[in-house]
Amino acid sequence: MSSPKCRNYLAEENLLDIEKMNIFIESVDERKPLGKLIKVYADQTWVDGWNAGFPQGFIVGLICGGIIGIALRR
After folding, report:
1. Do residues 36 and 3 both lie within one domain?
2. Among residues 30, 50, 49, 52, which one has the least CA distance to residue 39?
3. Quick count: other Cβ atoms within 10 Å of Cβ 12?
4. What is the C-alpha to C-alpha distance for residues 53 and 43, in angstroms, rounded to an integer?
5. pLDDT at residue 65 above 60?
């Protein structure tokens, strides 16, 4: 067994947690309101904010910087 700080140990723990979570989600009763809420939450698609937000923010920053640069030159 590897140490708790080891990357392999954390990967193993994450896999166990994901398996437990999947078993829980499969056992949820969708006929009940809380079950519906859990299913909707579990079916969401997550977006990596860094890969989605950084390029767009960089482009907006360049455009705004250019506009402010042109305005200050005049």
Report:
1. yes
2. 30
3. 13
4. 22
5. yes
